[in-house]
C-alpha cells in the first residue's frame, strides 16, 4: 500500500483489492448530509449506516481505505476494552459505564452479523480468543477478569495450564481466558468490504483526498481537499491516532504505541494442525505483550510492541523468531516472509473519547488497540446520532474535552526504547 511493504504486509497481499477507480480523489465541489474524515472502521461504519438510513455521506481519506490502524492490526475481534469491566462504571459513572460495557460486550456479535448480512469475505472465524496468562500474576489477572465478565453473564471460560496448552498447541502459560464472543478477521479485507458496502448503499469515498482545511460557512461544514471541497450539515472526524493537522488535538490527546506483526509462509499441514486447532486469536498478559494467530492459509501471524525502523527492525525480528520458536518448538527452521507495523492510540485510562468539536460535529478517538468491534459499533452510533435517531445523552460515551496527553513525546520514546531493550535481552 502506497509502495511501502512494511505498512500492511500480509494483509495487503491477501485482501481482495479495492479498485482505485471506485475511490477516486475528490475533484470539484460536492454536497452531502455528512462529511466524514477518515476511512477506517469508524468512518466506514458511519458512512454505511448513514447511507442505509437514506442520508448522503461523503468520506475523505488522506491515503487509502484502511491505511491506518484499521488495515495493520492483528485482526482480533474482541469484546470490551483493556479496562476491567468493574472499572468502567467507576471511570464513566453509573449511566455510561454499564451502557458502554453492554455495547462493547455485544460488539463482536454486531461485527459478525454485519459480515454475514453483506456477505463480506474477510476470513472471519468466530471461535473465540484466548488471553494467555503469564505466571501467577497473569493468571490472577485473568481470574479476576473472568469473574467480572461472568457476573454480567458473558460466556467466558478460564482454562488451566493444561487446557490452555491443548488449545494453543504450545507455550507454558499458567492459564488462558477463552472468550467465545470474540473471533478473528483479515482486518484490511474487512475495512475494504465495509467501504464496498457503504458505496453500494450510496455513500461516496474519496481516497488520496486529505482534508486540508475544515471551516464553518453559513451553518454548514466545508471540508477542503487539494482538488475539491465537500459542504455538509454534519462533520464526523474518524482519524484516531493517524490524525493530521486539521484535527491535531485528537492526536495530541493520545500516546502513540508502535505495534508490529510478522507472518510465516503457509505452514505445512502436519504442523499447522498442531497450532491453534480451534482457530482462536491470542495475546498474553505481559506489559510488552505478544500476540499470535493463524490466517486462512495457515500462516502464523506473530506480533508485539515495536517499530520496524532502523535499527529497531533487526532487534524485533530476531526476538520474534526466538519467541515464536520458544512457544512453538515445532516451528524451528521456519522464519517470517512478511512484516509490517502501525500505531495504536493510547489514552490515560485506556478508554475511548467522544468529542464535539463544534455544532453538528462529532469525533471519536482513542481505541487503545481495540478498534475492530468498537469502531464498528461506534460508527453505527454516530450515524444514528447524525440521523436524529439517537440523542446525545443516549450515546455510549459521555462527551469529553480535548486534553493533551502529559509528556506525550517522551512517553512515546520510552515505549520504543523499552520494547527495543526488552526484545534485545529476552525471548519473552
Automatic annotation (TrEMBL):
<dbReference type="InterPro" id="IPR006076">
    <property type="entry name" value="FAD-dep_OxRdtase"/>
</dbReference>
<dbReference type="InterPro" id="IPR036188">
    <property type="entry name" value="FAD/NAD-bd_sf"/>
</dbReference>
<dbReference type="Pfam" id="PF01266">
    <property type="entry name" value="DAO"/>
</dbReference>
<keyword id="KW-0560">Oxidoreductase</keyword>
<dbReference type="GO" id="GO:0005737">
    <property type="term" value="C:cytoplasm"/>
</dbReference>
<feature type="domain" description="FAD dependent oxidoreductase">
    <location>
        <begin position="33"/>
        <end position="384"/>
    </location>
</feature>
<protein>
    <submittedName>
        <fullName>Glycine/D-amino acid oxidase-like deaminating enzyme</fullName>
    </submittedName>
</protein>
<dbReference type="GO" id="GO:0016491">
    <property type="term" value="F:oxidoreductase activity"/>
</dbReference>
Amino acid at each position: 500500500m502506497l509502495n511501502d511493504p512494511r505498512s500492511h504486509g500480509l494483509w495487503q497481499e491477501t485482501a481482495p483489492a479495492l479498485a482505485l477507480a471506485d475511490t477516486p480523489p475528490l475533484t470539484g465541489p460536492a454536497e452531502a448530509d455528512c462529511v466524514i474524515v477518515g476511512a477506517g472502521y469508524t468512518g466506514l461504519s458511519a458512512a454505511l449506516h448513514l447511507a442505509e438510513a437514506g442520508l448522503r455521506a461523503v468520506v475523505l481519506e488522506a491515503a487509502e481505505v484502511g491505511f491506518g490502524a484499521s488495515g495493520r492490526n492483528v485482526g482480533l475481534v474482541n469484546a470490551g476494552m483493556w479496562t476491567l469491566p468493574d472499572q468502567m462504571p467507576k471511570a464513566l459513572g453509573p449511566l455510561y459505564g454499564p451502557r458502554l460495557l453492554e455495547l462493547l460486550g455485544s460488539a463482536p456479535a454486531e461485527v459478525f452479523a454485519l459480515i454475514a448480512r453483506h456477505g463480506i469475505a474477510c476470513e472471519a472465524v468466530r471461535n473465540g480468543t484466548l488471553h494467555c496468562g503469564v505466571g501467577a500474576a497473569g493468571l490472577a489477572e485473568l481470574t479476576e477478569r473472568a469473574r467480572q465478565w461472568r457476573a454480567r453473564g458473558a460466556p467466558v471460560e478460564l482454562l488451566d495450564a493444561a487446557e490452555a496448552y491443548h488449545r494453543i498447541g504450545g507455550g507454558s502459560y499458567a492459564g488462558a481466558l477463552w472468550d467465545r464472543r470474540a473471533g478473528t478477521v483479515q482486518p484490511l479485507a474487512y475495512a475494504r468490504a465495509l467501504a464496498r458496502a457503504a458505496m453500494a448503499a450510496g455513500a461516496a469515498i474519496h481516497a488520496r483526498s486529505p482534508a486540508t482545511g475544515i471551516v464553518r460557512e453559513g451553518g454548514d461544514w466545508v471540508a477542503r481537499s487539494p482538488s475539491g471541497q465537500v459542504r455538509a450539515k454534519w462533520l464526523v472526524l474518524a482519524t484516531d491516532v493517524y490524525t493530521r493537522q486539521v484535527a491535531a488535538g485528537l492526536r495530541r490527546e493520545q500516546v502513540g504505541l508502535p505495534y508490529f506483526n510478522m507472518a510465516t509462509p503457509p505452514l505445512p499441514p502436519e504442523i499447522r494442525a498442531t497450532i491453534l486447532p480451534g482457530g482462536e486469536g491470542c495475546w498474553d498478559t505481559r506489559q510488552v505483550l505478544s500476540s499470535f494467530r493463524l490466517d486462512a492459509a495457515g500462516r502464523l501471524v506473530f506480533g508485539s510492541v515495536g517499530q520496524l525502523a532502523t535499527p529497531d527492525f533487526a532487534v524485533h525480528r530476531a526476538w520474534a523468531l526466538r519467541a515464536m520458536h520458544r512457544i512453538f518448538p515445532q516451528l524451528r527452521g521456519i522464519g517470517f516472509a512478511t512484516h509490517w507495523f502501525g500505531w495504536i492510540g493510547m489514552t490515560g485510562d485506556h478508554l475511548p473519547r467522544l468529542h464535539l468539536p463544534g455544532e453538528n460535529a462529532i469525533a471519536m478517538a482513542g481505541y487503545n488497540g481495540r478498534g475492530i468491534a468498537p469502531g464498528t459499533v461506534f460508527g453505527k452510533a454516530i450515524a444514528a446520532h447524525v440521523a436524529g435517531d439517537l440523542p446525545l445523552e443516549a450515546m455510549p460515551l459521555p462527551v469529553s474535552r480535548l486534553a493533551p496527553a502529559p509528556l506525550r513525546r517522551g512517553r512515546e520514546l520510552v515505549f520504543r526504547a523499552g520494547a527495543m531493550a526488552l526484545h534485545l535481552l529476552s525471548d519473552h
